[in-house]
Design a protein that fits this description.
globular, 6-stranded parallel sheet, about 40% helix, Rossmann fold, alpha/beta, single chain
Amino acid sequence: MTADYINDFNSPFLIRPQSSALVVVDLQYATGSLDHGLGKMLREQGRLEEADYRFSRINNLVLPNTQRLLKAFRDASATVVYVTYGAEREDCSDVPLHIRRIVKATNNIDGHKEHEIVSSIAPKSGEIVLNKVTMGAFGSTGIESRLRAMGVTEIVTVGVSTNNCVGMTAMEASDRGFGVVLVSDATGTCDEESQGAFEAMFLRLWGRVLCADEVMTELNLSR
């Protein structure tokens, strides 16, 4: 039985162009492409079918809906911020131990192809790109001061992985007083159970869970 009473305590907020930012998290070749990083490694190991859900969701939902949201935010003159993750030192010694192995295994190091943002959702000139060496963006990028300087009070989060870097970034933002939206069909992880479980958890006081169409409708109504 779901404890719906907790929803009574959620704080309401709107997605408004003048005060909202789209935050695109970790959509890089390292873990977001079948042909590089994680996808290439699993193919070489004969285990690519284990990641069918992940890459199907990225290619069919996450990337297309992120493209649509990017256009909507840009058309509304709203803020767009990209966040990447990965090492800035070749030996990956600047990355915490709990993610160092996957960073090394996927060659997710600044200056390498795997560290780059997938080209179909690449940043435009002037859009901020911040690299983190932790799961959450607020722990190692200075994103908070950037957002506050630009007058951002609400963020809309997309990317991968829902229950890791996207989720940590979203929860950090919520704890710092931002209104946070997790986009259900523009985020992805390794299986449907994990996706659904995180969405259900996030609704418990952390923020809102909306689909891309709902975000764009609200953004346009607030213009």
